[in-house]
TrEMBL record:
This is Nitrile hydratase subunit beta. It comes from Acidisoma cellulosilyticum. It holds the Pfam family NHase_beta_C. Residues 3-91 form the Nitrile hydratase beta subunit domain.
Length: 92
């Protein structure tokens, strides 16, 4: 389980290139590093539910990203807050 304040890397994976799938992780976050803010609970994996498959419960987190690290602009600091399942996160 990830902890609040922990730095994480969003997996740079592209399952849609391997066949039909349902993905809740935005493309622009793959390969990005963020910070876990909080654990939101454990929920059935929507990537399996979309196809009517048995879905194991996964931890869901609020993860914060610095906007300038995602898009390289020099605008005032902005935070992007995204809900991501643990299966997409790796500890840094």
């Amino acid at each position: 389980m990830m902890k609040a304040g922990q730095r994480v890397l969003v997996r740079n994976d592209w399952p849609e290139t391997r066949g039909p799938c349902h993905i809740r992780t935005p493309h622009y976050l793959r390969g990005a590093t963020g910070t876990v803010l909080r654990h939101l609970g454990d929920f059935p994996n929507p990537e399996d539910l979309a196809f009517g498959r048995h879905a194991k419960h996964l931890a869901l987190y609020h993860v914060s990203f610095d906007a300038s690290s995602l898009w390289g602009d020099r605008k005032p600091q902005a935070e992007i807050l995204v809900e991501l399942y643990e299966s997409w996160l790796e500890p840094v």
